[in-house]
Amino acid sequence: MNIENIHVSRKLIGVAVIWNKKGQILISRRLPNTFMGGLWEFPGGKVESGETVEECIQREISEELGINIEVVEQLITINHNYNNLYVSLNVHQCLHIGGIPQPLECDEVRWVNLYELDDFAFPEANTQIIYLLQENGIWQQVKCKGGDG
User: Fold this and answer.
1) What is the Cα Rg of the chain in Å?
2) pLDDT 10s per residue in the chain (149 long)?
3) Calpha distance 116→143 (Å, rounded)
4) Considering the entire predicted model, what is its pTM?
């Protein structure tokens, strides 16, 4: 088999690490009947044609969770291959501005403390995000940039 003939789907994903004024992060659990169903994730979704990553994050968070956020800054880009799916996660730090998170397009949502993230099962690519957040005291940096906490 010629390796060049293997079809790999590629997706650019906008990912939000959303902080509240208590220093907690919003995570959501994927619907059971979806790819990697039942795993927890930082919310976000596929960047549509003609859309910036920041616009994607704003749109996805509104559609999936029904809340308003401020996209603060890019945190990291993670490229990861899940068998026949290659994802580029463009991760941004965000601040919760208003609304009560609702599981509109996910199974469950939860505010958690930074070190509680270890208690939840996340897709493999998300481990780099968690490591970066925990090792670098990211919440303090967000607060210094004008966070609401």
Assistant:
1) 15
2) 444 545 557 889 999 999 999 999 999 999 988 888 899 999 999 999 999 999 999 999 999 999 999 999 999 999 998 877 888 999 999 999 999 999 999 999 999 999 899 999 999 889 999 999 988 766 545 554 444 43
3) 20
4) 0.85
Q: Could you tell me which residues are annotated as the binding site for Mg(2+)?
A: 44, 64
Q: Binding site for 8-oxo-dGTP, residues? A: 30, 41-44, 126
Positions at the binding site: 30, 41-44, 64, 126
Distance of alpha carbon 27 from alpha carbon 85, whole angstroms? 22
Decide: helix, strand or coil at residue 23.
Answer: coil
Tell me which CATH homologous superfamily contains domain 3-144: Nucleoside Triphosphate Pyrophosphohydrolase (3.90.79.10)
Q: Where are the domains of the chain?
A: 3-144
Q: How far apart are CA 139 and CA 9, in angstroms?
A: 34
